[in-house]
Specification:
Helices cover 38% and strands 20% of the residues. It is an alpha/beta fold.
Length: 175
């Protein structure tokens, strides 16, 4: 026979387990009747000090135009860091759209919500860092490795219901 304390502990463990299982589900979906596309990349190669791009990084920033410049990108988001902004600046200029700068360390769940709620059925580009790419990727329903390597280019199609589809590509001379 289980004691009252043991029953309470088991109930607590069950609640924790249910919470963990629900966190594994995609909690964010596109607005009803839409599929929102989120393109995720890590900034281009940076210097050892971490703030600026290397010559290879600048070359790859220009190569981003060849990789996705013909896609209908509606919005670009980036942490307000030199390496990230310099990575996406040539593409933003090519597309004629502004870069939406956010804090250096954004709340990843809030960013995922912003992409979906502010741009339903549209295409958004996120130029991230190893500290924020995994959180956004998994919040949007990505599975497996997140796009944290130089040259990773993941295209997530987030439907209004069901599973997110992920297309994994590379860009620049990181192929």
């Amino acid at each position: 026979m289980l004691t009252k304390t043991t029953k309470l502990m088991l109930a607590g463990y069950l609640l924790v387990l249910l919470g963990l299982l629900s966190a594994c589900e995609t909690m964010i979906h596109s607005r009803a009747g839409t599929t929102t596309t989120v393109i995720m990349i890590r900034h281009a190669d940076r210097t050892p000090s971490g703030s600026a791009l290397t010559p290879r990084g600048h070359k790859n920033a220009k190569a981003l135009i060849a990789a996705i410049g013909d896609m209908k990108i509606d919005a670009i988001y980036s942490p307000d860091l030199v390496r990230n902004i310099d990575t996406v600046r040539p593409l933003a200029k090519h597309l004629g759209i502004k870069i939406n700068k956010v804090s250096d360390e954004p709340n990843t769940h809030d960013m995922a919500i912003t992409f979906i709620e502010d741009h339903p059925g549209k295409t958004v580009l996120w130029v991230g860092n190893t500290s924020n790419l995994p959180g956004i990727y998994y919040a949007l329903g990505g599975e497996g490795d997140s796009p944290v390597k130089y040259g990773d280019l993941y295209i997530l199609r987030v439907p209004d219901k069901g599973k997110t589809q992920v297309e994994k590509k590379t860009w620049g001379d990181n192929k």
